[in-house]
Amino acid sequence: MTIMKKLLASAVASALMVGGAQAEITNNTVKIGYLADMSGTYRDLAGPNGLKALEMAVADFGGTVKGAKIEIVTADDRNSPDVASSTVRRWVENDNVDMVAGLVASSVTIAATKVIEENNKLGLVNGSAASSITNEHCTPNHIHYAYDTYPLSVGTPTAIVKEGGKSWYILTADYAFGHSLEADVTRMVESNGGEIIGSIRHPFPTPDFSSFILQAQASGADVVALANAGADTTNAITTAAEFGLTQSGQTLAALLLFLTDVHALGAETAQGIQLTTGWYWDKDEDARAWSDRFWDETGVRPTMVHAGIYSSATHYLNAIAATGSDDSQTVRKQMMDTPINDMFAKNGRIREDGRMVHDMYLAQVKTPEESSSEWDLYEIIRTIPGDEAFRPLSDSKCKLVSSK
Amino acid sequence: MSMIFGVPMAVLSGQLLIGIINGAFYALLSLGLAVIFGLLKIINFAHGAMYMLGAMATVIMFDTLGVNYWVALFLAPVLVGIAGVLLEYFLLRRIAGQDHIYSLLLTFGVALIMQGILTNIYGVSGLRYAMPDVFKGGINLGFMFMPYYRAWVIVAALIVCFGTWFMIEKTKLGAYLRAGTEDSQLMQGFGINVPLLVSLTYGFGVMLAAFAGVLAAPIYSVTPVMGSHILIVVFAVVVIGGMGSIGGAIITGILMGVVEGLTKTFYPPASSAVIFLVMVVVLMIRPNGLFGKEA
After folding, report:
1. Whole-number Å distance between alpha carbons of A354 and A350
2. What is the mean pLDDT of residues A92-119?
3. B3-136+145-285 has which CATH code?
4. Which residue of B has its CA nearest to A245?
5. Most buried among A50, A141, A198, A214, using CB within 10 Å?
6. Are strands A251-254 and A349-350 parallel, antiparallel or unpaired?
7. Distance between the two ends of chain A, CA-based, in angstroms?
8. ipTM
9. A146: DSSP letter
10. Kindly report the CA angle at A93 between A87 and A99, in degrees rounded to 5?
11. Mind listing the pLDDT tens digit for each residue in B41-90?
C-alpha cells in the first residue's frame, strides 16, 4: 500500500514537473502577492496606491491571462525583513503565489528575494533603492525595475560637483539602502574630483534632525547630502531650513526624493532642489494619459514607484500571455527578450543581472510662481541615458553576469 | 578651538542646547504620562496618539478654518482634552480597578484605531504647517545658530511643566487629586466628586500631550504616525524617572534629551538605543526609578 502511495506520489510529481516544462499555468491561476509598507514611513510612495496601480494592470487584461485567472493577495511588511520573509514564505510555499510585486524598503527586499529564489518564483522590485539588489544580492528570480541608488548618485551629485561643490558631508540612514547610496555617492563624488569630509549614520527613522544638521553645519562642507528617504528626508530638509543651513552658504542635496515628499514639503520649501528620478507623471503624453487614469482612481499623482509597479506588472502579464507559462525562468527570459515601450520607459531592457535599464531624469523643483498646480512640481533639466545612468555590467559583482 | 574627546567645544555646546530642546518635549510628554499613571494608575498607551492629535488638529484647523498658531496652542489641547475626558468616561471607567494590563491594551487599541483612520485620510508623507511669522529666523549664539522657535519651545515647555508640578504638589486642588486617588471612598464622604476628578485628570494629562503636539507642528513633520515613534521613548523616560513621580518625569525628560543629544555627537548609530540602555542600568540599580518612592 505504502509502495503504491509512493509510486503514485512520484507519478503525480513528475507529471507536475513535465507540466511546468510544457508551458502551462499552474492551478490555472496567476497569483500575485503585493508586499509593501502599507502603514509606515514609506506608505505614500508605494503603499495602497501601488496596489491600485497593480490592480489597474490586472484590469487591463480583464482579470485573466491565457484563460487563467489573475488573483492578487496583499500584506503589510511593516518595513521589517522578518515579517517580509515569513509572509513571502507563506505565500510561495502554501498559497501558490507566482510573483511578488511592490517590495519597498531595501532590507525587506533583500530578505524577501532570498525566499523567492529558494522557491524559484519571481519578484518585481519597484520601491527599493539599494543598487546592491542587482549587484551582490542579485538572484535569477527578481527584477529591479524603477530606479536604484546608482543613477541617483550619477544624476544629482555629478551636477553639483560640476557646479563647484567639492567637499561633501553625508547624512546616511543606517540600513542597507542608506549604506548602498552612501557608497555609490562617495564613488561618484570622488571620481569627479570632490571629497567626502565626513558622514553620520543616523537611526531609521529619526524624528529630530537638529543634532545632525548642526554637526553638518559645523563641518564646513560645501555640500550636505541626505542619503535617506521618505519622512527622514523631509524632516531633514525642514530642519535644515530652520537652522539656516543654505543661508550660511552650504548646498543641500537630497539624493532620493519622491514626488510625494516634494508634495508634502510644498514648492515654497522645496523650490530649487535638484533630484534624480526614474519617471515623472508630466514627462510626456503617455505618462500624462496614464497619470490621469491613476488620478481618477486615487485622487493623487503617481510616484515613479506607482508607475513602475503598473509597467512591470503589465510587462510580466504580457510575458505570460506570450509564453503561456507562469514558470519563473520562462517568464523572466521572455521579459528580458522583449524591450519595454510604454508609459514608463522607452526602449527599456532587462539585463542578465535583473536590472531594468532605462533613461533617468535630473529634475529641479519649480518655484511657487512656476508651478501651475499642486502636483506641477518638477522641471526636467536633463535626461540621463540608461547606459550612463546604471552600473555598467563590467563593474558588476552579480553571480549571474557571464562576462566576469 | 578647544576640543573635548575630539569634538570641538562649540559643537558640544550646540548639542547640549539641542538636547535640552528635545528634552523639553520628552518632559512635557512624560509629565502627562506620569500624572495619569501617578494619580489614576492607568498606563496610557494612547499618549503618543494624543500628541499626534494635538499636532494634526493644529494643522487641520489652520487649513480649514484659518485658526492661527496662538489660538491653536490653546484650542487644540482643549479639544484633545475633551476627547480624553470622553475616552475616560465611556471606556476607561469600565475597567477601573482592574489589572494595569487592561488599561494598557485598551489605550493601545484606541491609539491604533486613531492612527489608522487618520493614515487612511491624510497619508504619512506629512502635512505642511508654516512657521508663525514672529518665529522666523534665529540668532547666532557664536557656537550655533539658534532658531527663535526652538528657544520658545524651551520657555513654553518649562512654564507648563513647572505650572503642572506646582498645581499638583502645592495647591489645594492638587491635594484633592492626590487624596482622591489614595482613598476615593473617604473623599466621596467629604462631598468631593471623585469620578469627575478622575475624568478631568485624564483630560488634563492628555492636554499636556496635545500641547507638546502643537509645539511640534512647525518643526517636525506632522503625520498620523508621529506619536508612535516617540511613545516608547517617553515611556522609558517615565520608567527611568520613577513611575508616577511628577518632578522626576520633568527632570528625567530633560536629562534624557541631553544624553541622547550627546550620543548623537559621539556615536550616532546608538542614539535610538541609549535611553533604553540607561533604563536597564537604572532599573538594575534603583528598581523604582531615579525619583520613585520605595514600593
Report:
1. 6
2. 96
3. 1.10.3470
4. B145
5. A50
6. unpaired
7. 53
8. 0.85
9. S
10. 70
11. 899 999 999 999 999 999 999 999 999 999 999 999 999 999 999 999 99
- Please state whether A324 falls in left (phi above 0), alpha (psi between -120 and 50) or beta: left
Q: Residue B114 and residue A118: Cα distance in Å, rounded?
A: 40
Measured between beta carbons, the chain B residues lying within 8 angstroms of A217 are 144-145
pLDDT at A121: 97
Chain A residues within 8 A of B59 when measuring between CB atoms? none
* Contact between chains at B230 and A217 (C-beta distance less than 8 A): no
Tens digit of each residue's pLDDT (9 = 90 or more) over B213-223: 999 999 988 99
Q: In whole angstroms, give the CA distance from residue B216 to residue B210.
A: 10
Q: Give the cell for residue B237.
A: 523616560
pTM for the model stands at: 0.85
Are the Cβ atoms of B221 and A264 closer than 8 angstroms? yes
Q: What angle separates helix B172-182 from helix B9-40, to the nearest 10 degrees?
A: 60
**Distance between CA atoms of A94 and A117, rounded to whole angstroms?**
16
What domains lie within chain A, and their CATH numbers?
Answer: 28-147+284-358 (3.40.50.2300), 150-277+360-389 (3.40.50.2300)
Q: Do A264 and B127 touch (CB under 8 A)?
A: yes
Q: DSSP H helical segments within chain B, as ranges?
A: 9-40, 47-65, 69-90, 100-122, 148-170, 172-182, 184-189, 194-216, 226-241, 246-266, 274-285
User: At A60, which helix (H) or strand (E)?
Assistant: helix A47-60
CA nearest to B36, candidates B135, B168, B221, B150 = B168
Distances (CA, A) of A332 to A123, A211, A315, A363, B66: 10, 47, 10, 32, 54
> Residue A121 corresponds to which cell in the numbers above?
518564483
Per domain, the residue ranges of chain B are 3-136+145-285
> How are beta strands A99-102 and A122-125 bridged, if at all?
parallel
Q: Provide the 3-class DSSP secondary structure of residue B67.
A: coil
CB-CB under 8 Å, A218 with B11: yes
Task: Find all residues with CB under 8 Å of A289, minimum gap 6, and list them.
Answer: A343
**How far apart, in whole angstroms, are the C-alpha atoms of residue A33 and residue A395?**
32
Helix (H, G, I), strand (E, B) or coil at B115: helix
List residues bridging with A34 in a β-sheet: A74, A101
B47-65 vs B194-216: helix axis angle to the nearest 10?
A: 60
Could you tell me the end-to-end alpha-carbon distance of chain B, in angstroms, rounded to an integer? 49
Do the chains contact at B225 and A40, CB–CB below 8 Å? Answer: yes
Q: Which pLDDT value is given to residue A12?
A: 55
Residues 6+ apart with CB under 8 A from B194: B180, B184, B187, B188
Residues 6+ apart with CB under 8 A from A278: A146, A147, A151, A304, A308, A358, A360, A361
Q: What distance in Å separates residue B40's CA from the closest CA in chain A? A: 30
Helix residue spans in A167-299 (DSSP H): 176-191, 210-219, 231-242, 259-270, 285-298
d(CA A13, CA B113): 47
Q: Do B131 and A235 touch (CB under 8 A)?
A: no
Q: Which residues of B touch A243 (CB under 8 A)?
A: 138, 145, 147
Instruction: Report CA-CA distances (Å) from B51 to A378, B25, B48, B216, B226.
Output: 34, 10, 5, 9, 8
